[in-house]
Amino acid sequence: MFKFFKRKTKGGSEASVQDEKKFSSFVLMAFVLLLPLFFIPFPSFSFFFSKGILIALVTVILSIVWLVNRLRDSKFTYSNNPIILTSIALPLIYLISSLLSGSVMTSFMGQGFEIGTSFYMVALFLLMFLTSSVVNTKERAYYLFFVFFISFFIISIYQGLRLIIGPEFLSFGVLGDPASNLIGKWNELALFYGLTAILSLVTIEFVNRSVLVKVLSYVVLLVSLFFVALVNFNTVWIVLGIFSFVLVSYIISANKFSLETPGGFKAKRLPIVSFLVIVLSTAIVLGNYGDAGTTDNTSLGETLSNRFSVVSSELKLTPLGTWEIAKETLKSRSAFLGAGPNRFVTEWLKYKPAALNNTQFWNVDFNSGYSFILSSVVTVGLLGFVLWIVFLGFLFIAGFKAVFIPKNDKAEGYLLPLAFLTTVYLWLFSIIYIPSHAVMALTFVFTGVLFALLMQNGVIATKEISFAKNQKHNFILVLILIFLMLVTLVTGYVVTQKFLAAAYSQKGLIELNKEGAQLGDVENNIIKAINLSNGDAYYRFMSELALVKLQGLLSKSDLPEDELKTQFQNILGQAVDNAVRATQIDSTNYQNWVSLGRVYETVIMFGVQGSYEQAVNAYLQAINLNPQNPALAFSLGVLEYNTKNYDNAVIALERAVILQPYYSDAKYFLGLTYYNLDRVDEAILQFKDLQTLNPESKEIVDILDNLESGASPFAGFQNAQTTQDTEETTTEEETAE
């Protein structure tokens, strides 16, 4: 089907460069093959971090090879095309925004696996440019699509066997849920198969020379449609229908004007297959909307989900909800460059609507908005968002024009539309969805393929510059290239450390959740994580672990008093130091301040001077960062209640109840606080509300009877004080969780 050409090289240096390009091509193709499949099959390794480390390491390897090539030939290819210029400007904006974010490390790299950090944005754009450099021939572009389809078949076999045998099949302790898959989120599986459906349609409609290719294309299409139906992500059906409609329109237009279609074949027939996909997509979309809220009819997706016992849901903000957060951010000093990459959650916590507290999602911290591109208004501001729009606009326009340029090369006529449709499809889901690592990396790789084809086709004009003949310029170039090589190696080392740290942390968490957990083993794993990566989450973990150890120590009765006191002071000191260190690393994360508040709250019990003030200050800092969270106001209120500062407790607890009118725990303590302030009538009202919210609670009935009869709330309770103390402790622990 395809004709490949061998090229001879002249001179040892040029031959060496060609060998290195072949190596880069092999690495890139292996990456496209493995990326949708790859994960480390151990529970202690995060699934998404496994994808992230692969992306980072492949980018590092390709970068080093590219730098070595430039050291050898001293030649650079560049372009002044607006697409190239904006794609250089975007990662720079991410870096600058990170530096001004107020929490540089969180914004730059985070815990090491967040796709929205400036590190990953730089890595992905670099991967895009490296792909365009590696795919410098049409046969390499073919090979890239070929290995992508190999990946498709492997994933399909794996997912199909899991559907037939059960989710425990080859789960490796990681993919145990029926909705677990190799791509990422459940909806992303539909996104992946939507892409393969479109690619198979293009091949079916335009490639006529190979029966084997035709048969395989039909197989790909049928399998893809099955999995899209199984996941039943309505957006994919809509997009698939639109792309099929565009394909049908293009072929009919080509018939009318006797134009050659991609692949060099004249379309002399109605594109039946694409038309049937339009009909199927329309029917399923209308069926999904028509069945909403009814039980009489079941859609195809629901039928398949029920048949294979796959249930999954994905929670994300609406476009309007995202825009409300963006609007508030744009009113602040963050308008131009945003709050910083990976910092959407900080703006969400500041500006989330109070009405959300009346829903079951009142305590959800959203790390992103409705879509990746729309979230960029918050993270990288107006400048970043406008650059995204400009970049995508120029990219789509250039690709659209290139599709209609007459081509003498049939291979080019097939590849260019294929790469263009792939790129548009993937970027479209960045506009309307939040892709994770695999889909996002594929987006940039196939954009790089489109870049390469546009350059080969002359749509993107390029120039070559050489520093080989000027020794002074060559010397400066060598210095810069060696420096960049060192930076690349250091980056790879840091990413590896982050990855290992996350693995140790996850291992410690798994050990902690085991029955009869050995706290010493847990602590050793977290210490290893801290030694590898100085993250605030690890220090916060250590602080919470110290509190657990403290509780265990106080329950021991066989230790001498001096030894007990010494161990107590050491553990308490560790708890305080680790909590303080977490706030120093990221003072904008409210969870760090909550952890510090809990530690100082524990210290209060032992009469340590200044601990009350420190605890109150920590909780106030947390509330300042997350003002709409009723749980934080409740924690402060309980602290004030336990220290008998009832006037302060009322203020905090009333705030919690205002934010969450159905917050039973807050009403419980607010009622007790009112009683201690001789505001009995108000206390009775709170417990009447509690009785409505908890009609089966005998304790609330008894407390209410006591209050209405003029007795103390716990009059007649056996071990009344113990009951109250237990209730307080339990409530605080639930809040922390």
UniProtKB/TrEMBL annotation:
The keyword Membrane applies. Residues 725-737 have a biased composition (Acidic residues). TPR repeats lie at residues 596-629, 630-663, 664-697. Gene3D superfamilies: Tetratricopeptide repeat domain (1.25.40.10). Signal peptide: none annotated. The keyword Transmembrane helix applies. Keywords: Membrane, TPR repeat, Transmembrane, Transmembrane helix. The chain crosses the membrane at residues 23-42, 48-71, 83-105, 117-135, 142-165, 185-204, 211-231, 237-258, 270-290, 372-402, 414-434, 440-462, 474-495. Residues 712-737 are annotated as: Disordered. This is Uncharacterized protein. It comes from Candidatus Campbellbacteria bacterium RIFCSPLOWO2_02_FULL_35_11.
